[in-house]
Amino acid sequence: MGKTHSTAKAASSETASDTASEASAPDVRPFGWRDKIGYMCGDFGTDFMFVFAGTWFMIFYTKVMGVPGTIVGTLFLLARLLDAVMDVTVGVVVDRSKDHPGGKFRVTMMRFTAPLVLLSFLMYQTFAIDAAMWVKIVYMSITYVVWCFFYSCVNIPFGSLASTISADADDRTSLSTMRSMGGTIGGLILGIVAPIVIYQKVNGHQVIRGGDGTHIFSIVAAVVSIAAFIGYVICYFNVTERVHPDPDQNAKEGEKRSPVHMIVNAFSSRSMLGIVAAALSLLVAQLFSNQLMTYVYTDVFGSAALASISGLLGTAVMFLVVPFVKPLTKRFGRKTICSFASALGAVAMLLLFVIQTRNGMVFLIGAVFMYFALMGFNLVIWAMITDVIDDIEVTRDTREEATCFSCYSFARKIGQAVAGELAGLSLDWVGYQSGATAVQSTATKAALYNVATLVPGVFFLLTFVCLAVIYPLSRDRVLYNVEVLRVKRKGLTGDEARLLVKYEGITPTGVTPEGSTIEWPDFHELDKARELSARTGVAIRDPQGPAADDR
């Protein structure tokens, strides 16, 4: 009875055409490069502050302000645990808020951008450098915790934007890739410029420029904050929200569900649990490495230039990988790509731990393979979050973008907390000496090298296990979910959409092979599918239709 969906390409192309027809509605600009560039600039702003804080906050407070690494690490742990709770709370509040003509998520993001960038600047002030230690700790804690709060208020709606910009799977891969490019460009600038600006060589040793009481961090923080604000403004004026679910679809008997039920619903999904576990492990590997690599390059290898070269290589890897992301994900699926990437990261870091090299260039080669692993994961992870949001809607008939994204962000914050605490404890464990002009012993350097390679390697391995064992969204499962939602957007209920897709020829295990039929259909079910097909214009594979004999 008409058209058969026999390939993944067919499912994707129908979704694209359906999305295009929605975007061509009056006053709605079609998805295009403006959205991609805008979303990339938004993540440039986010990661410019995030990477700066993740890499340099601990260095500023241990080397300039003289705060012990254990205290800074404990702040990371406690603040991130609190921040994780704030993420979920913000997500629920945003999902339950009313829509806005300018887009619910875009407007919410911009409301909190100004205080966020201001706090990003205030965290690196040195006016209390000669004050008592408790004053330094109080100022450090207040500014960091408040910054984390505003970061949640901006990052949750920004991250939720991806699932509303387009419903097409390929568009979402493009958005995920562009978002990661924005963050990587921000990281490149910081990775290359910041070490050269912040460090200088004195008597053969790398020390903080300006010595004790330096204002170099305040200057760099001001530049970072201004650039981040510009990135958010570009995002706001160039991104359009197009996907608007039925406002009543998340209601139960006419009433909105409770916040607790919304959170439980998200975390009870296997796809959410899988991505949360994988993200937590990967973030520990990535951020622990980010925080300690600068110490390794400057203290173990004695070269701030190596830190800059490392940042440049990381960006070069991104540009090498980007052209292959879309075709590889279409061929193998996002789960397979991320599983391979995390396994590669584990091998690279554990091999560096085993060989114990003291050659900076050999270490850089190992770092390059780690960058391939990180890019393989990070360039598609944001599209995987939208896959999870789709999966929950297909299986639970609820769509709560901000709540789902906040649950993922919860895992990221836990990962950041664990990474920060481990980094602080590791510095104390290896006997690291604080101070802008301090020189480390040979034993400290050796121990620093060991923890900087072993810990990321172990957590890359855990990421692989989480993806392979827990996360269920294979390439075929994602295509099935996309097709169910495409059909559902034609005014059907979830049950009706799943029934229609079943007879359309696509199943939860993938696209039915060409020529297959449903041998023993439920005739009541088949009659319902025929009625839905006639109502929506979606062709089905009718085992009793005229085309059945031809097959």
The count of β-strands is 6
Distance between the termini: 11 Å
Q: Quickly count the domains.
A: 3
Radius of gyration: 25 Å
Give the neighbour order of strands across the main sheet. 1-2
Q: Which parts are unreliable, with pLDDT below 50 for 5 consecutive residues or more?
A: 1-26, 248-255, 507-520, 547-551
**CATH class descriptor of the largest domain:** Mainly Alpha
CATH homologous group name of the largest domain: MFS general substrate transporter like domains
Sheet with most strands = 2 strands, antiparallel
Order of helices and strands: HHHHHHHHEEHEEHHHHHHHHHEEHH
User: Which topology of the largest domain does CATH recognise?
Assistant: Growth Hormone, Chain: A
Known CATH architecture of the largest domain: Up-down Bundle
Q: Which structural class best describes the helix and strand composition?
A: mainly alpha
- Number of separate helices: 20
In percent, how helical is the residue content? over 70%
Q: In what range is the share of β-strand residues? A: under 5%
Describe the overall structure.
The protein has 551 residues and is mostly helical. Strands 1-2 form a two-stranded antiparallel ribbon. The protein has helices spanning 8-23, 33-64, 69-96, 104-111, 113-122, 133-160, 162-165, 169-198, 216-238, 259-267, 270-300, 304-332, 334-355, 360-396, 401-429, 442-469, 475-488, 494-504, 523-536, 546-550, and strands at residues 199-202, 205-208, 251-252, 255-256, 506-507, 510-511. It folds into three domains: 31-242 and 250-256, MFS general substrate transporter like domains (Growth Hormone, Chain: A, Up-down Bundle); 284-473, Growth Hormone, Chain: A (Up-down Bundle), CATH 1.20.1250; 476-536, no CATH class. 74% of the residues lie in helices and 3% in strands. It is globular and about 85 Å long. GO terms for molecular function: symporter activity. It comes from Bifidobacterium olomucense. Residues 1-26 are annotated as: Disordered.
